[in-house]
Structures are given as structure tokens and as C-alpha cells.
Write a structure and sequence with these properties.
Length: 210
């Protein structure tokens, strides 16, 4: 076979291979049907009920006033007991912009909640100026450091990422394997087609016997 004929045959084979590959998209496996999950009763809420509220909406950061309506401080945290029941709140009082502020513990039952103009007013009637001055700062028995909080947050995010990435990774592997298998099939068919083209060219180029 001369050089120009061989080049033409190879080019024809490549064109056939490219056309076959372009016309045959990789098959994507169908996603498995999601199994029906039985939701346990008495465990979860569908949404916020009329008798429910979030601490960050009405407690955390809320101003507390005395019996005369003067602001004495703001609620910084909630105090719970070992049964996970709310027993009180931590109020930051005095100081300027947090400097020189004293934190005091207040029993939840000592707070009075009132509605005024659609807003919730939190009062501490027993909080006179003399009482607040005489009070000792609230003493904490334990406190999680910022580093520990950051570690917990990173660990939680890592675990959630692993859990969420697992199914997606398996799905990607399945799709990738299917695409690779299909590519192999198309490539094999193109090679066979190329061989047929070469054989036909050889027969055409062979000298005819007299």
C-alpha cells in the first residue's frame, strides 16, 4: 500500500471512530428509588407552635428593665439544670460596651414578661441600684474555651461533610464506570470499523490478475 493510501485509510478510521463516539452518549445509571423512611412519633416538630419561641429571639440579647422601666442590662445566656430544664438567665449589667460589666445570675421565676405595643418587655422588679451594686458576680463552675468550641464545630462540619459526600461519591463512581465501559465499547467498535476500511482499501489497491 502506498503512503498516501495508508494515510487516507487511517484518517477514515479516525473519522469513523469520532463519529461513533459522538453519536453514542455515555449511559447514566438510573438513581435507585429512595426507601420510604418511617418517622418516629413524639420526637420532632414540623414547625414553630403558637406557644413556642426561640431563646435567641426573645431572651438572648434582650434588654432587662427594673420596676421603673430603666434598662439594667441584657440577657447573655440561659442557665439550665442537669435535667436540661431552664432555671435562670445570665445578665450582664453595668459597665460601658462590655468593659467593667458584671454578670449576675437571675432565677427565671423572678423575671416578669409583659407585652407592650406588640413587643415583649422583660422586667426584674427586684433589681434596684443598691441591690445590683451589692450583688457578687455570678461564678461559673465550668466554661468551654473558644478553642474547644472551634474544635467541636470543625468536627461536626467534617462529619456532616463525610456523611453527605458518601452517597454522592458512590454515585459519581457508578457514572464514571458506566461512561468508561461505554467508551471502551465505542472504541472497540471504531477499531473494528477501521480494520474493515483498511482491508477494503487493500483489496482495492491489489493488482488485478490477468
Amino acid at each position: 500500500m502506498n503512503k498516501s493510501l495508508f494515510s487516507a485509510v487511517v484518517a477514515a478510521g479516525l473519522v469513523a471512530s469520532s463519529a461513533a463516539f459522538a453519536q453514542t452518549p455515555a449511559a447514566t445509571p438510573a438513581a435507585p428509588a429512595a426507601a420510604k423512611v418511617s418517622i418516629p412519633t413524639g420526637v420532632f416538630y414540623k414547625g414553630q407552635g403558637p406557644q413556642q419561641y426561640f431563646a435567641k429571639d426573645r431572651l438572648i440579647g434582650a434588654n432587662v428593665v427594673n420596676k421603673d422601666g430603666a434598662v439594667i442590662g441584657d440577657i447573655e445566656d440561659v442557665i439550665l439544670n442537669t435535667s436540661n430544664e431552664i432555671e435562670g438567665v445570665l445578665i450582664g449589667t453595668g459597665g460601658v460596651l462590655g468593659v467593667g460589666e458584671k454578670k449576675i445570675g437571675v432565677r427565671y421565676g423572678a423575671l416578669v414578661f409583659e407585652k407592650k405595643d406588640g413587643k415583649t418587655i422583660i422586667k426584674l422588679p427586684a433589681a434596684s441600684k443598691d441591690v445590683l451594686t451589692a450583688l457578687e458576680p455570678y461564678k461559673r463552675a465550668e466554661k468551654k474555651s473558644l478553642l474547644d468550641k472551634a474544635k467541636d464545630k470543625v468536627q461536626g462540619a467534617t462529619e456532616r461533610t463525610k456523611e453527605g459526600a458518601g452517597p454522592a461519591l458512590e454515585k459519581a463512581k457508578e457514572v464514571g464506570k458506566a461512561a468508561l465501559d461505554k467508551t471502551k465499547e465505542v472504541g472497540k467498535a471504531a477499531i473494528e470499523k477501521g480494520k474493515d476500511v483498511i482491508d477494503a482499501a487493500k483489496e482495492k489497491a491489489a493488482p488485478q490478475k490477468q
